[in-house]
Amino acid sequence: MRPLRPLLVLTAVAVLGACGTGGSTGGSSTSGTAGDTTPSASTTTTSAAPEDPTLPPPSGGKVRLLTVTGSVSAGVESGCLLLTPTPADSNGPWQLMGKVAGIKPGQQVTVRGYRVENVASTCQQGRPFQVESIVAG
After folding, report:
1. Domain ranges for the chain
2. Cβ contacts of residue 101 below 8 Å, gap of 6+?
3. pLDDT, tens digit, for every residue of 35-60?
4. CA 79 to chain centre
5. CA separation for the pair 81, 73 (Å, rounded)
6. Which N-terminal stretch is annotated as signal sequence (predicted)?
């Protein structure tokens, strides 16, 4: 039994040591002197929304295409576009996604597309609407 004890201790140390190698989540790391802390390097890339983040149709492949006319406004997040239907409806505003190249805040547009359910968005406003085409605008 005695020869197994060092092997068990070595295994426990290896397992516990591996737990700490996933990277730091604390946001700071210590430098050479006690008490000095420097923030860890963090790179955040902020860019405008992609021009054509096309989503696949919902499972089953069939979608109900809608034609919506309204005025476009900028969302609170950079690159987000909202379409407030004219006349106003209980579904709006819509968060425009997909083929939105050429659409700018302040425009009156008519778009054709479909509602998108269960999708995460950084825009935090409006119901996601996948634009398939710009009918007028």
Report:
1. 66-136
2. 51, 52
3. 555 444 433 333 344 444 455 555 56
4. 12
5. 6
6. 1-18
